[in-house]
Amino acid sequence: MKKYLLMVAMAALILGGCTLPTKEQPAESQQPTAPVTVEPGTPETSGQPPVVETVPQPPKVQTIDWSASVQPLVAKMLQADGVQAGSVLLLDSVKNSTNGSLQVSKATAALHDALATNNKFQVVPASQLATAKQALGLSVDDSLGSRSKAIGLARYVNAQYVLYSTVTGDVKSPTLKMQMMTVPSGEIVWSGNGAIQY
């Protein structure tokens, strides 16, 4: 019985993977090591010049003087031959056909301001124009890209003329082009263009 117990004990030791230290392999003493922290050196302590990050400058945005840009063209348009004084004029929103982004809503506002005190035309008020667009199923922000839309809208508000304005060319040096046409015939009675003023 002792023999079986001894065999079972030996088998348990072998299966358990326990090894006894031998004289050939001395046990290493393990001592805890403190964690090493490395602090980044400041320019004063590391001897290196400080790293300077350059922040890119945003591009300079040139402010367009829309009032100065539209005034000369409006003055020429008011002297156009064959236009009856007191006629109703529909101003289409200024369109941007440049290769960049422009605030053409300010150009449209400048056109309204330039024509506010003229003696030749009665400009369709913005509120009446918005109501007419709604009645015809057009968006209030719809710039009348199609001439047929503009003619239909002009007839609805009883306008005799429509003024189209487009900004074209390179966005850094654009050109303002204007055309005035009669509503009944669609004939262009005046056109002009000029450089944008900054």
Describe the overall structure.
With 198 residues, the chain is of the alpha/beta class. It has a domain at 68-195: 3-Layer(aba) Sandwich (Rossmann fold), CATH 3.40.50.10610. Helix content is 32%, strand content 19%. The chain is built from 6 helices and 6 strands. It has helices at residues 2-16, 43-46, 66-78, 104-115, 126-135, 147-156; strands at 87-91, 95-98, 121-123, 161-169, 175-182, 188-195. Strands 1, 2, 3, 4, 5 and 6 form a 6-stranded mixed β-sheet that branches. A hairpin with a 5-residue loop joins strand 4 (161-169) and strand 5.
Structure characteristics:
signal, peptidoglycan synthesis, palmitate, membrane, 6 strands, 6 helices, 6-stranded mixed beta sheet, alpha/beta, Rossmann fold, 198 residues, Penicillin-binding protein activator LpoB
List the helices and strands and how they pair.
Elements: H1 2-16, H2 43-46, H3 66-78, E1 87-91, E2 95-98, H4 104-115, E3 121-123, H5 126-135, H6 147-156, E4 161-169, E5 175-182, E6 188-195
Parallel strand pairs: 1-3, 1-4, 2-4
Antiparallel strand pairs: 4-5, 5-6
Helix pairs in contact: 3-4
Please state the structural category: alpha/beta
**Whole-number mean pLDDT:** 81
CATH architecture of the domain at 68-195: 3-Layer(aba) Sandwich
Helical content class: 25-40%
